[in-house]
Request: fold
Amino acid sequence: MEITHIIAIIGSIVGVLGVFFKREEILSLRGKDFTARLDSTVRFFKDFYTNADEKKLVLDRAAQELVRQDFVNFRFVQYLIKLDEQYLINFDEILNHYRRGREFIEYDSLNKETDVNNFALNTPKNRAVKTQVRLYNVFYFVFAFIGLAPFLFSSWFNNFLSSKGAPFIFIIFTIFFVIVVFGVAVGSLLQANSLQHADDFISKLQEAERNRNA
Reply:
Protein backbone atom coordinates (compact mmCIF):
# COMPACT_ATOMS: atom_id res chain seq x y z
CA MET A 1 0.00 0.00 0.00
CA GLU A 2 1.45 3.39 -1.05
CA ILE A 3 2.20 6.07 1.54
CA THR A 4 -0.29 8.45 -0.11
CA HIS A 5 -2.99 5.82 0.27
CA ILE A 6 -2.17 5.38 3.95
CA ILE A 7 -2.28 9.15 4.46
CA ALA A 8 -5.67 9.29 2.72
CA ILE A 9 -7.04 6.57 5.02
CA ILE A 10 -5.74 8.30 8.14
CA GLY A 11 -7.08 11.66 6.95
CA SER A 12 -10.52 10.20 6.31
CA ILE A 13 -10.65 8.57 9.75
CA VAL A 14 -9.56 11.83 11.39
CA GLY A 15 -12.23 13.70 9.42
CA VAL A 16 -15.02 11.31 10.45
CA LEU A 17 -13.94 11.43 14.10
CA GLY A 18 -13.54 15.21 13.95
CA VAL A 19 -17.10 15.73 12.75
CA PHE A 20 -18.35 13.35 15.45
CA PHE A 21 -16.61 15.03 18.38
CA LYS A 22 -17.00 18.61 17.13
CA ARG A 23 -20.62 18.38 15.98
CA GLU A 24 -21.87 20.65 18.76
CA GLU A 25 -19.43 23.43 17.83
CA ILE A 26 -20.29 23.03 14.13
CA LEU A 27 -24.01 23.30 14.78
CA SER A 28 -23.49 26.37 16.97
CA LEU A 29 -21.87 28.43 14.21
CA ARG A 30 -24.46 31.14 13.69
CA GLY A 31 -24.51 34.87 14.21
CA LYS A 32 -26.21 36.55 17.16
CA ASP A 33 -27.57 40.10 17.10
CA PHE A 34 -27.40 41.01 20.79
CA THR A 35 -28.75 44.53 20.30
CA ALA A 36 -31.89 43.26 18.57
CA ARG A 37 -32.33 40.63 21.29
CA LEU A 38 -32.12 43.26 24.02
CA ASP A 39 -34.64 45.51 22.27
CA SER A 40 -37.15 42.70 21.79
CA THR A 41 -36.68 41.54 25.41
CA VAL A 42 -37.32 45.02 26.82
CA ARG A 43 -40.37 45.41 24.59
CA PHE A 44 -41.72 41.99 25.58
CA PHE A 45 -41.52 42.70 29.31
CA LYS A 46 -42.89 46.22 28.92
CA ASP A 47 -45.81 45.54 26.60
CA PHE A 48 -46.76 41.88 26.92
CA TYR A 49 -45.37 39.87 29.84
CA THR A 50 -47.95 41.00 32.43
CA ASN A 51 -50.64 42.09 29.98
CA ALA A 52 -53.28 39.42 30.53
CA ASP A 53 -55.88 41.41 28.60
CA GLU A 54 -54.04 41.16 25.29
CA LYS A 55 -55.29 38.74 22.63
CA LYS A 56 -53.75 35.26 22.76
CA LEU A 57 -52.50 35.44 19.18
CA VAL A 58 -50.76 38.76 19.85
CA LEU A 59 -49.08 37.33 22.96
CA ASP A 60 -47.96 34.26 21.02
CA ARG A 61 -46.48 36.42 18.24
CA ALA A 62 -44.67 38.54 20.83
CA ALA A 63 -43.16 35.42 22.41
CA GLN A 64 -42.06 34.18 18.99
CA GLU A 65 -40.42 37.52 18.25
CA LEU A 66 -38.59 37.36 21.57
CA VAL A 67 -36.99 33.97 20.91
CA ARG A 68 -36.80 34.35 17.12
CA GLN A 69 -38.65 31.07 16.58
CA ASP A 70 -42.19 30.19 15.55
CA PHE A 71 -42.50 26.92 17.46
CA VAL A 72 -43.28 28.49 20.86
CA ASN A 73 -46.29 30.25 22.37
CA PHE A 74 -46.68 32.84 25.12
CA ARG A 75 -47.38 30.34 27.93
CA PHE A 76 -44.29 28.35 26.99
CA VAL A 77 -42.00 31.37 27.10
CA GLN A 78 -43.63 32.77 30.23
CA TYR A 79 -43.03 29.48 32.05
CA LEU A 80 -39.34 29.45 31.13
CA ILE A 81 -38.95 33.09 32.15
CA LYS A 82 -40.47 32.38 35.57
CA LEU A 83 -37.96 29.59 36.15
CA ASP A 84 -35.12 31.77 34.91
CA GLU A 85 -36.14 34.63 37.21
CA GLN A 86 -35.93 32.21 40.14
CA TYR A 87 -32.42 31.13 39.04
CA LEU A 88 -33.64 27.58 38.44
CA ILE A 89 -32.66 27.42 34.76
CA ASN A 90 -30.70 29.39 32.21
CA PHE A 91 -33.29 30.72 29.76
CA ASP A 92 -31.05 30.76 26.68
CA GLU A 93 -29.52 27.38 27.46
CA ILE A 94 -32.79 25.53 27.93
CA LEU A 95 -34.37 27.24 24.94
CA ASN A 96 -31.41 26.05 22.89
CA HIS A 97 -32.02 22.50 24.13
CA TYR A 98 -35.66 22.75 23.03
CA ARG A 99 -34.77 24.29 19.68
CA ARG A 100 -32.30 21.51 18.90
CA GLY A 101 -34.34 18.62 20.32
CA ARG A 102 -37.97 19.56 19.71
CA GLU A 103 -38.56 16.80 17.18
CA PHE A 104 -38.30 14.35 20.09
CA ILE A 105 -40.37 16.46 22.51
CA GLU A 106 -44.13 16.34 22.75
CA TYR A 107 -45.54 19.67 23.96
CA ASP A 108 -49.18 19.98 25.00
CA SER A 109 -49.85 23.60 24.03
CA LEU A 110 -53.61 23.56 24.61
CA ASN A 111 -53.53 23.87 28.41
CA LYS A 112 -54.00 27.36 29.80
CA GLU A 113 -51.16 26.77 32.27
CA THR A 114 -47.77 25.41 31.29
CA ASP A 115 -45.43 23.41 33.51
CA VAL A 116 -43.11 20.44 33.24
CA ASN A 117 -46.08 18.07 32.84
CA ASN A 118 -46.83 19.62 29.44
CA PHE A 119 -43.63 18.14 28.03
CA ALA A 120 -42.82 14.51 27.29
CA LEU A 121 -39.87 12.80 25.65
CA ASN A 122 -40.73 10.75 22.58
CA THR A 123 -38.04 8.28 21.48
CA PRO A 124 -38.34 5.81 18.56
CA LYS A 125 -40.04 2.62 19.76
CA ASN A 126 -39.86 4.02 23.32
CA ARG A 127 -36.20 3.05 23.61
CA ALA A 128 -34.05 4.46 26.40
CA VAL A 129 -32.34 7.69 25.38
CA LYS A 130 -28.81 6.31 25.82
CA THR A 131 -29.66 3.24 23.75
CA GLN A 132 -31.12 5.29 20.91
CA VAL A 133 -28.23 7.76 20.91
CA ARG A 134 -25.77 4.86 20.70
CA LEU A 135 -27.72 3.43 17.74
CA TYR A 136 -27.59 6.75 15.90
CA ASN A 137 -23.85 7.03 16.55
CA VAL A 138 -23.29 3.47 15.30
CA PHE A 139 -25.27 4.31 12.13
CA TYR A 140 -23.06 7.36 11.61
CA PHE A 141 -19.79 5.42 11.74
CA VAL A 142 -21.15 2.47 9.71
CA PHE A 143 -22.49 4.58 6.84
CA ALA A 144 -19.47 6.91 6.88
CA PHE A 145 -17.24 3.82 6.53
CA ILE A 146 -19.44 2.43 3.73
CA GLY A 147 -19.12 5.72 1.86
CA LEU A 148 -15.35 5.89 2.23
CA ALA A 149 -14.49 2.20 1.83
CA PRO A 150 -14.50 1.97 -2.01
CA PHE A 151 -12.18 4.97 -2.30
CA LEU A 152 -9.81 3.93 0.48
CA PHE A 153 -9.50 0.18 0.08
CA SER A 154 -10.03 -0.48 -3.65
CA SER A 155 -7.31 0.69 -6.00
CA TRP A 156 -9.29 -0.80 -8.93
CA PHE A 157 -12.27 1.41 -8.07
CA ASN A 158 -10.13 4.56 -7.93
CA ASN A 159 -8.27 3.75 -11.14
CA PHE A 160 -11.47 2.87 -13.01
CA LEU A 161 -13.29 5.97 -11.78
CA SER A 162 -10.43 8.29 -12.81
CA SER A 163 -9.82 6.64 -16.18
CA LYS A 164 -10.98 8.30 -19.39
CA GLY A 165 -13.00 5.23 -20.31
CA ALA A 166 -15.16 5.26 -17.18
CA PRO A 167 -18.85 5.14 -18.21
CA PHE A 168 -20.75 8.34 -17.45
CA ILE A 169 -23.52 6.34 -15.74
CA PHE A 170 -20.93 4.80 -13.41
CA ILE A 171 -19.68 8.25 -12.39
CA ILE A 172 -23.24 9.48 -11.80
CA PHE A 173 -24.07 6.38 -9.75
CA THR A 174 -20.90 6.87 -7.65
CA ILE A 175 -21.80 10.50 -6.92
CA PHE A 176 -25.38 9.49 -6.03
CA PHE A 177 -24.11 6.66 -3.83
CA VAL A 178 -21.74 8.95 -1.92
CA ILE A 179 -24.41 11.63 -1.42
CA VAL A 180 -26.98 9.13 -0.14
CA VAL A 181 -24.62 7.24 2.17
CA PHE A 182 -23.07 10.36 3.68
CA GLY A 183 -26.52 11.91 3.91
CA VAL A 184 -27.65 8.98 6.06
CA ALA A 185 -24.47 9.20 8.13
CA VAL A 186 -24.81 12.92 8.82
CA GLY A 187 -28.54 12.54 9.39
CA SER A 188 -27.91 9.89 12.03
CA LEU A 189 -25.38 12.12 13.78
CA LEU A 190 -27.85 15.02 13.78
CA GLN A 191 -30.56 12.77 15.18
CA ALA A 192 -28.29 11.67 18.03
CA ASN A 193 -27.47 15.29 18.80
CA SER A 194 -31.13 16.29 18.67
CA LEU A 195 -32.24 13.49 20.97
CA GLN A 196 -29.53 14.37 23.51
CA HIS A 197 -30.74 17.96 23.56
CA ALA A 198 -34.32 16.80 24.05
CA ASP A 199 -33.29 14.67 27.00
CA ASP A 200 -31.32 17.58 28.49
CA PHE A 201 -34.36 19.86 28.11
CA ILE A 202 -36.68 17.49 29.98
CA SER A 203 -34.07 16.68 32.64
CA LYS A 204 -33.32 20.33 33.38
CA LEU A 205 -37.02 21.19 33.65
CA GLN A 206 -37.61 18.29 36.03
CA GLU A 207 -34.62 19.32 38.14
CA ALA A 208 -35.86 22.93 38.21
CA GLU A 209 -39.29 21.84 39.41
CA ARG A 210 -37.77 19.67 42.13
CA ASN A 211 -35.67 22.58 43.37
CA ARG A 212 -38.66 24.89 43.11
CA ASN A 213 -40.79 22.66 45.31
CA ALA A 214 -38.02 21.79 47.79
